[in-house]
Write a structure and sequence with these properties.
This protein is mainly α. It is built from seven helices and no strands. It has a single domain, classed as Phosphate transport system protein phou homolog 2, domain 2 (Methane Monooxygenase Hydroxylase, Chain G, domain 1).
């Protein structure tokens, strides 16, 4: 559900760029439903996660991973709500860079999901196969590369926004850059604080 919410953000930006607010509203609803489902899964996992000493990884690490995934879905919902609530459209010259950033961030989320799924399979077999371990390592390297690419795109887009600052309403500009910062930070294991996203 977390990844589903992330994958819908680029489509939402495309809809807003096309001034198609009916489609954008439907995408907003889909993102909200995915976020709600992710919240339900998060609560269920936290309730049923054992305190056993025999977990394959520390319980605290699992809780951290759950929290990171929760922030991805929450940020997708926040971006969707902001775009719909204020009818935000990026300036024409920045629409493609914004969509590219969203696509790369979504790809990072999806690659991280694939790595987690592969790691889960490795835990079941006890990390006995070198080829499987190498495959997970390659997946994690791909996540890191996508994250780095997303960081570069975010810097480029933010610079473009500031160049147009005088032409944009201050509130719209600050909201857009704050949302992009939160989205870029939350799509992987890096932590985005509540202050960063709501201040």
């Amino acid at each position: 559900m977390v990844d589903q919410a992330a994958q819908l953000v680029p489509d939402l930006l495309r809809a807003s760029a096309a001034d198609d607010w009916d489609s954008a509203a439907l995408l907003h609803q889909d993102i909200a439903k995915a976020e709600a489902a992710a919240d339900q899964q998060k609560r269920s996992l936290r309730r049923h996660l054992p305190n056993s000493l025999f977990l394959p990884v520390p319980r605290s690490d699992l809780l951290t991973l759950i929290g990171v995934q929760d922030r991805i879905a929450n940020t997708a919902k926040d971006i969707a709500g902001l775009i719909i609530g204020r009818r935000i459209r990026f300036p024409p010259s920045l629409q493609d860079p914004a969509i590219t950033l969203a696509e790369t961030s979504a790809a990072t989320s999806h690659q991280a999901l694939k790595a987690i799924q592969e790691l889960d399979e490795l835990l079941e077999v006890g990390f006995t196969g070198r080829e499987e371990i190498r495959r997970v390592e390659d997946m994690l390297k791909a996540v890191d590369e996508l994250e780095h690419r997303s960081d570069e795109l975010a810097v480029h887009l933010r610079a473009g926004l500031f160049k147009l600052e005088r032409e944009l309403r201050l509130l719209t500009l600050s909201s857009s850059t704050r949302s992009l910062r939160c989205w870029a930070r939350s799509r992987t294991t890096r932590k985005a604080s509540v202050i960063d996203c709501k201040s």
